[in-house]
């Protein structure tokens, strides 16, 4: 097993028990038995490490613009991601408590914007149109904050209802691309 895997395993275990803001790189290194130099060879900071783990658990192989062609596909995609959130809920909750620069909330917003730009471009939208960009950012920032609040409340609304809520926040200009 290589150092990067040890770092990920250690960070995952630590973040399950401790909000990321209270965790130090030193805490991760001690459990992983990896040097500080090695850590910084792979990661800029603890958030970069946490976001890589988050991506692998909740997005990799799930959040793929090329696999989404219609409303049924994006509803399925959300439900798959929600299942991953539930499976790793203590870890996910401790990531979403942070509001530091580079935190998972920032990562999720940017990932969602990147996904939607690729998806909309594939569907023929002019992603350079300022109205489309504004609508996209409003949807993705608002949706990510709503998702964070839902996660921090132990996902108290069932998945189908949450998908429907995401559907409701799609701006009118974007609706035709998501049907």
UniProtKB/TrEMBL annotation:
InterPro entries: Homeodomain-like_sf (IPR009057), HTH_TetR (IPR001647). It comes from the Bacteria. The keyword DNA damage does not apply. The keyword DNA-binding applies. Residues 24-43 bind DNA. Transmembrane segments: none annotated. Residues 1-61 form the HTH tetR-type domain. SUPFAM superfamilies: Homeodomain-like. Pfam families: TetR_N. GO terms for molecular function: DNA binding. Keywords: DNA-binding. This is AcrR family transcriptional regulator.
């Amino acid at each position: 097993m290589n150092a990067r895997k040890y770092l990920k395993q250690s960070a995952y275990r630590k973040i399950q028990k401790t909000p990321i803001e209270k965790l130090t790189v030193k805490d991760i290194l001690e459990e992983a038995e990896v040097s500080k130099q090695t850590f910084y060879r792979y990661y800029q900071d603890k958030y970069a490490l946490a976001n890589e783990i988050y991506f692998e658990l909740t997005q990799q192989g799930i959040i793929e613009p090329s696999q989404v062609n219609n409303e049924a596909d994006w509803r399925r995609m959300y439900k798959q991601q929600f299942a991953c959130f539930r499976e790793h809920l203590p870890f996910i909750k401790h990531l979403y408590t942070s509001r530091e620069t580079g935190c998972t909330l920032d990562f999720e917003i940017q990932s969602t914007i990147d996904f939607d730009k690729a998806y909309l471009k594939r569907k023929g939208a002019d992603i350079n149109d300022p109205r489309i960009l504004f609508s996209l950012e409003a949807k993705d920032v608002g949706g990510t904050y709503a998702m964070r609040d839902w996660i921090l409340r132990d996902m108290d609304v069932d998945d189908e209802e949450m998908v429907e809520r995401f559907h409701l926040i799609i701006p009118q200009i974007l609706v035709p691309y998501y049907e």
